[in-house]
Every structure is written in structure tokens, then in C-alpha cells.
Automatic annotation (TrEMBL), chains A, B:
Listed GO MF terms: DNA binding
Subunit and interaction comment: Homodimer.
Domain spans labelled Phosphoribosyltransferase: 122-246
Gene3D superfamilies in UniProt: 3.40.50.2020, Winged helix-like DNA-binding domain superfamily/Winged helix DNA-binding domain
Keywords: DNA-binding, Transcription, Transcription regulation
UniProt-recorded name of the protein: Purine operon repressor PurR
Length: 273, 273
């Protein structure tokens, strides 16, 4: 192979690192790939680190020791995070989103992968201290969001099913009461989805009374998990209190008025928490 | 702002480009961001392009003209694609994945975001000629996969629901017959999900008789879409023919033998198609 120029090496290094958030690459992986000494690699990594920091694109972390290496952490905070949340808030506050029953049409936002990647990184930043082993959600609409939280943490995603599906083997089921409509429903999780004793972060797109999140927390406990946090994209201001004591929401939906066609929603901004 | 060194500029450029596959950045966006002339930017872009090509990390495409710019295309083909498909094939061919009824447990693979990102790029590479406007799938397990195909194409994801859910407004519903169990089921799509005349790529995780894919194709036609392709991760070798004439699968499941606990599955490799 011809000698690789530094600038091209740094391009490849950047691409490989940012493609796998939180994944710890051994330094030998890169020094072998590029055929360079570790000292040269350290200089390259410093350039990547400085550039990412300067442009607010995340952090590079070096872990020392034999099991060490380097990893990219996609922090998204401050003005950048606030800008995204304000944009979503504005997009959600339009009258044509109101659906009969006081719901909001949100699918276009929940299925916009680029927006959802960024939301995943905001959740990761706000829950970084919780160090979850798994990200859990319930089908259907919250799946892309939870997947991107899992991506930002580099942890597996676990999906709770409504009912119990045959293609996932033996499962644990629980009944739960939806807080808003007071109906009894069933949700289930394959037994092999979580290792007992693992830390679980629960993510969902929407919370009204909190019955669904409560169900997921109970189910996580049932299979031996420890819930270390609950995050939702949108939570309604009412009813209070919710069925979940402690949760973090990115947006607060104060009111959907079907008569005046007015939606009142606000982001929970960095620096104001 | 202090003067930005070339190597750091190239790091930021790489990160911003690879974060948004297929998104056309106007050249002015980057020359403004870095405070450099377009000629300097062109040199930087050439370095990024060469490095990505040299390491098999995708392509950089420059579009000329007033509406032009530069975009990253995450091609994943040849040996790299084959390696991923062979890995999945090996992982799926283990006896403990067999579930009563001859099904295979696949959720861990379908919810492994890093694997699914790469699968999305393989689907994109194989369907690039089809130039879809939307990626369509049906809940639940195929959603992450379809989302990553949507990411690789930079196109919106449309999710067909089983039944008709209140929170998505007025919807078109169809009945379809599952090819394997011959049951009549309903699936539906919000009317506003697709613009009439748009090209739709249907993606699903598994195909046996093809009834579900057939239903999605009919539903896409029903709302005025034009289906330009159908892709699945795993298709069973039998029954033949399927209810869908023309589809592309990444893996072929020849047999699941519940008695001998043997799974026979093989990847559809690049160069062998």
C-alpha cells in the first residue's frame, strides 16, 4: 500500500470513530490499519479531538491501560440541543397536527431519522450519568427514538411488545392500566432480552398519565432489571402526578385545544433545568 | 476565531458529511463555516473523497451548478458487505434460535443498531438504481432496519400499522391474507404519509409466503404510490412462488428443522448475484 498522507488518515480515523459512538477501539486497531507508530496515532487523535471540540461535534475520550483505547462520545448539549428542541416545539405547535381526542400527529418527527439521531444524542447527554446497560421501549412509534438512544450509548435496544408474539420464544407478560383511558392491557418481553441485574433506561415518545411507562418499569423489574431512568420526548403537563415518580421529558405539552385549534408546547432547555 | 488548521477542518468536514448520507450540502455552507475560499474547500473535499475511497468507507459526490453541492453516499458492497452477511448468517444458524413453529429468534440482530446501520447501507447500495422517495415497512420488528435504509437514502420512513390507530388521523386500510397462516388481517397507513406519485421501496425483516409484503405493496398503490422495489433481510426458500413476484433478499433460509435442531441459511453475496 502506498504511504497514506496524514490528512487522509485523519479522515478515515474520524469516519470510523464517529460511526460507532461509545465503542472503545484499541489503539492497536488504528496503528495496524494505518501502519503507523502509536506516537503518530496519538498526534492524529489529538487533532480529531480538538476539531470535534472546536466545532461542538462531540468528544473523544482516551482510556488508559491494557484494556484501553479511544472512543467517540456524541454529546449534544447547550445551544445546539436547545435549537433542535425549539425547532421540534415549533413544528409540533401547528393546528393541523391536532387529531380527534386531543392527540398530536407526531409520526413525521418520530420517523425523521436525522432529527431522531440528534434526539438520541440529547437523551444520551442528559442520561450519561445513569450508565444504562439496555435501552427499553414499547412498540411502535417510539422505536426509532429509542434505537437512536441505544446508538448514542452503544447499548442494546429491548422492545416490549403489546400482547405476546410467538416469534420471540418464552416471554414474561404483565397487565397494566393505561392511565388516561383506564383500560387494562398486556405487555410482554422475551425472557432472554435482559441479563438479570442490568441497568435499564426506559424511553418512550409520549407520556400522558404514565401508565405505559409504569408498565415498562414493572416489566423491567419483573425480569430482574434495575431501572435507572425514564425519558420521554413529550409529556403532557396534566394530569399530575403521573404514575411514574421520576422521569425526564424533552418537551412539555401544556394544552391541545380542539376548539380554538391551539397547541401549547415548550422545550425543556439546557441551562434552564 | 483563531485560524483553523487544515487537518482539523478536514475532521469537521468529514464528521458533518458522513453524519447525513445523501444530503446535498451547498459548497457555501462549508466555505462560510470554515472561512475559506471555495478553491481551498475543493482541495479539502478531494482529500476526504480519496480517503473514503481508499479505505472503502463510501463515496463523495459533487453536484455541479447553482443548486449543486457535495454529498456523502455510504456505499457498502463487495467483500465488506459479504463479511457482514456471512456474520449474520453464522449467528442465525445456531440451534438455540429455533422457536416453536419453525420460526427463528432474530430480534437481537434486528435491534443491534450498528449491524442494522450496515444492513441499511447494503440495501441502499443494492437499490440505489431505484431512487425511492419513501421507505415503507410494517410494524414492529422491521422498523429499525427500514429506518436505517431510510437513513442511507436520506428519505422519509413510512410505517404501516396493523389495525388503525387513533393518533395518526384518517387512514387507508386494506385487508390481506397472510400467506403462511391464511388468516385475514388489516393494515393501514395515514393518508398524509405519502405524496401521490411517489416512488416507494418496501422493506421487511422476514418473508415466508409474502402476504405481508403483498399487503404493503397494495396499500402503497392504494394511496397513490409506485412501488419500485421490495427488500427483505431473510426470505425462506419455500414456499415458491411467493405472493410477491419480484423481491430482493439478503439471506435465504433453506430450512429450520425442529427435530434435528438444524438451521440452514445462506447469504446472497455480492458478485454472486
Amino acid at each position: 500500500m502506498e504511504k497514506i498522507r496524514r490528512v487522509e488518515r485523519v479522515v478515515a480515523l474520524t469516519k470510523l470513530l464517529v460511526d460507532r459512538p461509545y465503542y472503545l477501539f484499541p489503539l492497536g486497531h488504528f496503528s495496524d490499519l494505518f501502519g503507523i507508530a502509536k506516537s503518530t496515532l496519538s498526534e492524529d487523535l489529538l487533532s480529531v479531538k480538538n476539531a470535534l471540540k472546536q466545532f461542538g461535534l462531540g468528544a473523544l475520550e482516551t482510556v488508559a491501560g491494557a484494556a484501553g483505547g479511544v472512543r467517540f462520545i456524541p454529546f449534544r448539549e447547550g445551544l445546539q440541543a436547545n435549537g433542535i428542541l425549539e425547532e421540534i416545539s415549533t413544528r409540533l405547535a401547528t393546528p393541523d397536527r391536532i387529531i380527534a381526542g386531543g392527540f398530536l400527529y407526531m409520526s413525521d418527527i418520530l420517523f425523521d431519522w436525522h432529527l431522531v439521531v440528534q434526539l438520541g444524542e440529547i437523551f444520551m447527554t442528559r442520561f450519561a450519568h445513569a450508565e444504562p446497560d439496555y435501552i427499553m421501549t414499547v412498540e411502535t412509534k417510539g422505536i426509532p427514538l429509542a434505537m437512536m438512544v441505544a446508538r448514542a450509548f452503544n447499548k442494546p435496544l429491548v422492545i416490549v411488545r403489546r400482547g405476546s408474539k410467538v416469534t420471540e420464544g418464552s416471554a414474561v407478560s404483565i397487565n397494566y392500566v393505561t392511565g388516561s383511558s383506564k383500560r387494562i392491557q398486556t405487555m410482554s418481553l422475551p425472557k432472554r432480552a435482559i441479563h438479570p441485574g442490568s441497568k435499564v433506561l426506559v424511553i418512550d415518545d409520549f407520556m400522558k398519565a404514565g401508565g405505559t411507562a409504569r408498565g415498562m418499569i414493572d416489566l423491567a423489574n419483573e425480569v430482574g432489571g434495575i431501572v435507572v431512568g425514564t425519558g420521554v420526548l413529550v409529556a403532557t403537563a396534566q394530569p399530575q402526578p403521573k404514575l411514574v415518580d421520576d422521569f425526564m421529558t424533552l418537551l412539555i405539552l401544556d394544552e391541545v385545544d380542539e376548539h380554538t385549534k391551539k397547541v401549547t408546547i415548550r422545550p425543556v432547555l439546557d441551562g434552564l433545568r
